[in-house]
Specification:
Distance between the termini: 29 Å
Strand content: 35-45%
Radius of gyration: 13 Å
Number of strands: 7
Order of helices and strands: EEEEEEE
Shape: globular
Number of domains: 1
Structural class: mainly beta
Strand order of the largest sheet: 1-5-6-7-2
Largest sheet: 5 strands, mixed
Number of helices: 0
Length: 79
């Protein structure tokens, strides 16, 4: 059974959102990161969660960061 991906919208700079990294970026040791939870617009998500921000697929990973996993295009009916 496929897991549902939550549509979260765009990150709001006024709200708490964990860092969003590209898959090849390394974490800086000076970043204050929380283990076990990723935040997106003040909502907490467990590590391992996938969310969709616009057409960008994000994966919640260790130390509480989002990692970009690519784009998802909406299904469009064939003509």
């Amino acid at each position: 059974m496929a897991k549902q991906v939550v549509q979260v919208g765009a990150p709001d700079p006024e709200r708490r959102t964990s860092p969003i990294l590209d898959g090849y970026e390394e974490l800086s040791l000076d970043m204050e990161l929380e283990a076990g939870t990723c935040y997106f617009n003040d909502t907490a998500y467990p590590i391992g969660t996938y969310v969709l921000s616009g057409d960008e697929l994000l994966h919640g990973e260790e130390r509480g960061v989002w990692v970009r996993k690519g784009e998802m295009r909406p299904n469009t009916p064939e003509q």
